[in-house]
Recover the amino acids of this structure.
């Protein structure tokens, strides 16, 4: 899932050439880094995997769950609150309704798959989702509270 989500995100960034999308990506990376730091502080082991071995990294909170929930929450907020980028279709159905309808079930499936695959426990996944749900609105609020003005300046300098 990492490769798929990363590739799709990079393709979307390359297509839109949007500073707002780059800011979103930076938020997702920051969410991932900070949740890994938190994981090292909590130091809760992962559940035993099917073959009886434990992964060397800790499990609480789930990084996959945190980042994919960040994606789902931020994309939903962006679709609800931000203007449609000129490179995207002007249709509200395509640019506002479709992304959350795709990303929320995808995020839910990825988060639950962490349990199905034996990589995490329910509490580890719930903690990861909660972390992503905390990070996304804060990061979105920073953008809408003024950081987007810097983004407009940078975007004006980048030829589309």
């Amino acid at each position: 899932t990492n490769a798929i989500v990363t590739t799709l995100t990079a393709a979307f960034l390359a297509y839109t050439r949007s500073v707002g999308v780059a800011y979103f990506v930076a938020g997702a990376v920051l969410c991932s880094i900070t949740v890994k730091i938190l994981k090292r502080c909590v130091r809760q082991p992962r559940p035993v995997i099917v073959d009886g071995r434990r992964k060397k990294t800790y499990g609480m909170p789930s990084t996959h769950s945190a980042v994919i929930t960040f994606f789902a929450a931020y994309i939903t907020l962006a679709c609800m609150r931000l203007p449609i980028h000129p490179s995207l279709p002007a249709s509200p159905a395509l640019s506002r309704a479709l992304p959350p309808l795709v990303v929320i079930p995808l995020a839910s499936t990825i988060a639950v798959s962490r349990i199905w695959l034996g990589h995490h426990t329910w509490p580890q996944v719930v903690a990861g989702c909660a972390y992503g749900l905390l990070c996304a609105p804060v990061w979105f609020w920073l953008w809408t509270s003024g950081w987007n003005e810097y983004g407009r300046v940078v975007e004006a300098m980048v030829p589309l």
In short: The chain is about 75% helix and 0% strand. The radius of gyration is 17 Å. Residues 74 and 136 are 5 Å apart (CA to CA).
